[in-house]
């Protein structure tokens, strides 16, 4: 089996109709993996930034970058290892749980309580993607009823 | 200038010097057709099926080097056109295809003849547009033509809703292209070029592996000069037939699945492969781990994603082939000594003498290869050769003596049966001074047979030569070799009377079973200046050889088939 590596790509594209379908279609049509994908416009420009987390063997990753480049609305594909990469997660926990230790855990993962209701709280954490993995493992003991991850956002440095 | 969207389409085509459009009308594109009626800048040829409109535009583009243009309507008009887009995309053919769409207000409502055309075309075009505002139309059309013909060429699809074709807007056709994101690289990196020349200098057994990029880049003259200067033997892909010219002593022939022995052996034994615009198609490489495994590789291509896609490349050069070879020539003049490769050339020549391309001729029954050779003898460079897909296509590539680029038009990448007749129509429209031959099969010809009407109506005198083996011959051949002769659904012995068929369309038909009849029919057909069909009854069980079975190795060709 070929060695798969995880790769974060920051793709700057023209913010126009259908550009997301070109990119998702490219990945689907050529059988590339998308682990996560986030999009947002870049302020004061006609561009958008996509952060794509993908994985594959070295030649496949090279092709992914080249194929992204080949799309007409692609302005730039940034693939340097030099990224600040963060992900966010929301976790809903029933109030019935014993919150012993939750505060310390939230502190450790840049977390806060984002919202609360009659019988639940929603906590929010923002951290490196692998630390989010760890947090989500650790938070299991509070029996969360719902978990939402944002996918990575990245900035090249 | 205030124009309607439809008038803008006409004006843009005029600015692009379009002289012919192939198309088929319908509700969503009627506004455009109304303007077609009023103008006399270009000729519109009504095909009898949208697929054929695109193949005709494609044939026009391949024969002329210009962008081919087609119009189709929304819904079924567009879906019929998809095979034409995919065919052109796989072979990097420049086209602009304009389709009608339901009015913007109705998009998304499953309206009559609504289909998500840009959603469907996306994976089989170089780029596409859905025009949402008439003010964008001039820029989009300008970009469409530019994208189609620049860089690695390809089809561009522009989908225009009916209300946009009616809206009025200001028309100023941009004189220049300003695209923020799309900037193809034409000039090769001089350092890479220098390294490539050094690699050639160091090599003992170099081979030129020439692909369709050499045609698209109009680099034939430069490639010939470079080959001659360096004394490097060359092989051509199916798409590159005509680049070197078959008279050229350096050309070994076509390589790949049905390539000749010397060409495939050259690839297998080379220590350096100089790839000029091919794409390492699996029908060429066979088993990848064995493909040219002793060779370092120089790959020149205008599309960076093509380089390293299939095999790792030692000397990548991104750039337009013509440009790059022009830069290589002066360096080669200084640094390469062609006499160094003489032993290698001699070895390959010997390979060619041991196993030339061959077939066993007969006096009892016409051999398809003979018919092709015969046309070559009688017409040679006077004819442009189109084909359909199957055995006849491979024999035409093997046995016709090509002498210049754009003489050979065949669907290589997609292998689209039904391509030949409409493409021949497009080619004849582009180059009326040439005889245009369509070598076709008894299977393929029926896939766009309705285009005989287009040809007759417009007096486009193409000559169709059916190599009639009463089989889907290529599939039958695989069944013979690999499926123990279980001829599942490949027998075509129930067939129309092709002579009566073409006569009913108003053309001329011939049925031939002997060499004399063949010569006579061909002569009459070429001289008649009408649409013709020659039904050549050939040996049913002839096989295309040599053959590298799919996934096999190039140096392990099946040279003969023994029961
Ligand atoms: C549209 C399409 N359908 C199916 C095929 C698969 N196919 C490849 S060659 C071939 C047989 C073609 O028969 P014919 O046109 O008679 O040519 P021959 O091989 O007999 O010369 C078929 C069915 C194809 N290439 N294109
Ligand atoms: Mg046949």
What does this structure look like?
The complex is a heterodimer of chains A (157) and B (563). Chain A is built from four helices and nine strands. With 157 residues, chain A is of the alpha+beta class. Chain A has two domains: 75 residues, ACT domain (Alpha-Beta Plaits, 2-Layer Sandwich), CATH 3.30.70.260; 73 residues, 2-Layer Sandwich (Alpha-Beta Plaits). In chain A, the strands form two sheets. In chain A, strands 5, 6, 7, 8 and 9 form a five-stranded antiparallel beta sheet that branches. In chain A, a hairpin with a 3-residue loop joins strand 6 and strand 7. The longest helix of chain A has 13 residues. Chain A is elongated and about 55 Å long. In chain B, strand 6, helix 6 and strand 7 form a beta-alpha-beta unit. In chain B, helix 3 runs parallel beside helix 4. Chain B is built from 21 helices and 20 strands. Chain B has 563 residues and is of the alpha/beta class. Helices cover 38% and strands 17% of the residues of chain B. Chain B has three domains: 169 residues, Thiamin diphosphate (ThDP)-binding fold, Pyr/PP domains (Rossmann fold, 3-Layer(aba) Sandwich); 165 residues, Rossmann fold (3-Layer(aba) Sandwich), CATH 3.40.50.1220; 170 residues, Rossmann fold (3-Layer(aba) Sandwich). The relative contact order of chain B is 0.11. The termini of chain B are far apart. In chain B, the strands form four sheets. A six-stranded parallel beta sheet of chain B has the order 3-2-4-5-7-6, with helices on both faces. In chain B, strands 11-10-9-12-13-14 form a six-stranded parallel beta sheet, sandwiched between helices. The model of chain B has no long low-confidence stretch (mean pLDDT 98). Chains A and B meet through helix 1 and helix 2 of A and loops of B. Bound molecules: thiamine diphosphate and magnesium ion. The site of thiamine diphosphate (TPP) has 20 residues of chain B, from helix 16 and helix 19.
């Amino acid at each position: 089996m070929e060695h798969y590596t995880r790769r974060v790509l920051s793709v700057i594209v023209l913010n126009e109709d259908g550009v997301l379908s070109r990119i998702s279609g490219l990945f689907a049509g050529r059988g590339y993996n998308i682990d996560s994908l986030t999009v947002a416009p870049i302020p004061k420009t006609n561009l958008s930034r996509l952060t794509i987390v993908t994985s594959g063997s070295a030649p496949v990753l090279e092709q992914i970058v080249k194929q992204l480049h080949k799309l007409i609305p692609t302005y730039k594909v940034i693939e340097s290892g030099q990224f600040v990469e963060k992900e966010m997660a929301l976790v809903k926990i029933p109030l019935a749980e014993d919150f012993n230790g939750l505060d310390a855990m939230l502190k450790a993962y840049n977390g806060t309580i984002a919202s609360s209701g009659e019988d639940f709280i929603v906590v929010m954490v923002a951290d490196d993607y692998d630390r989010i993995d760890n947090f989500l493992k650790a938070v299991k003991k509070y029996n969360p009823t719902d978990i939402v991850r944002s996918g990575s956002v990245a900035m090249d440095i | 200038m205030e124009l309607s969207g439809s008038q803008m389409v006409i004006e843009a085509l005029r600015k692009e010097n379009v002289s012919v459009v192939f198309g088929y009308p319908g509700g969503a594109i009627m506004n455009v057709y109304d303007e077609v009626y009023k103008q006399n800048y270009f000729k519109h040829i009504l095909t009898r099926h949208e697929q054929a409109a695109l193949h005709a535009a494609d044939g026009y583009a391949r024969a002329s080097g210009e962008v081919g243009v087609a119009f189709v309507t929304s819904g079924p008009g567009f879906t019929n056109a998809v095979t034409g887009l995919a065919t052109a995309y796989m072979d990097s053919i420049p086209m602009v295809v304009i389709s009608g769409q339901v009015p913007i207000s109705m998009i998304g409502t499953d309206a009559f003849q609504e289909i998500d055309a840009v959603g469907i075309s996306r994976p089989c075009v170089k780029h596409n547009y859905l025009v949402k505002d008439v003010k964008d139309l001039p820029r989009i059309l300008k970009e469409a033509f530019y994208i189609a013909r620049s860089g690695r060429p390809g089809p561009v699809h522009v989908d225009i809703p009916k209300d946009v074709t009616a809206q009025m807007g200001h028309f100023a056709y941009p004189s220049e292209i300003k695209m923020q994101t799309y900037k193809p690289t034409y000039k090769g990196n001089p350092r890479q070029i220098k390294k490539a020349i050094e690699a050639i200098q160091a090599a003992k057994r170099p081979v030129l592996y020439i692909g369709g990029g050499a045609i698209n880049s109009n680099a034939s003259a430069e490639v010939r000069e470079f080959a001659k200067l360096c004394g490097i033997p060359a092989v051509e892909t199916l798409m590159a037939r005509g680049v070197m010219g078959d008279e050229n002593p350096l050309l070994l022939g076509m390589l790949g699945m049905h390539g000749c022995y010397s060409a495939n052996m050259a690839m297998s034994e080379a220590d350096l492969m100089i790839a000029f615009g091919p794409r390492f198609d699996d029908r060429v490489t066979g088993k990848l781990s064995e493909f040219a495994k002793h060779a370092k590789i120089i790959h020149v291509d205008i599309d960076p994603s093509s380089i390293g896609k299939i095999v790792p490349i030692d000397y990548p050069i991104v750039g337009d082939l013509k440009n790059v070879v022009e830069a290589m020539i002066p360096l080669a003049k200084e640094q390469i000594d062609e006499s160094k490769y003489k032993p290698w050339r001699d070895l390959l020549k010997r390979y060619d003498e041991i196993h030339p391309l061959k077939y066993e001729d007969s006096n009892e029954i016409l051999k398809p290869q003979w018919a092709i050779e015969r046309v070559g003898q009688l017409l040679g460079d006077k004819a442009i050769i189109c084909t359909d897909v199957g055995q006849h296509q491979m024999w035409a590539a093997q046995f016709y003596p090509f002498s210049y680029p754009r003489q050979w038009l065949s669907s290589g990448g997609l292998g689209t049966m039904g391509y030949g007749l409409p493409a021949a129509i497009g080619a004849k429209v582009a180059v009326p001074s040439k005889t245009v031959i369509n070598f076709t099969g008894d299977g393929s010809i029926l896939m766009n047979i309705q285009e005989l009407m287009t040809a007759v109506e417009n007096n486009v005198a193409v000559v169709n030569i059916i190599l009639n083996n009463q089989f889907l011959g290529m599939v039958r051949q695989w069944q013979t070799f690999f499926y123990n002769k279980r001829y599942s659904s490949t027998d075509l012995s129930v067939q129309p009377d092709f002579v009566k068929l073409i006569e009913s369309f108003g053309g001329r038909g011939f049925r031939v079973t002997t060499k004399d009849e063949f010569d006579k029919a061909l002569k009459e057909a070429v001289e008649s200046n009408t649409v013709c069909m020659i039904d050549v009854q050939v040996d049913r069980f002839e096989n295309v050889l040599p053959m590298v079975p799919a996934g096999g190795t190039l140096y392990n060709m099946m040279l003969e088939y023994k029961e």
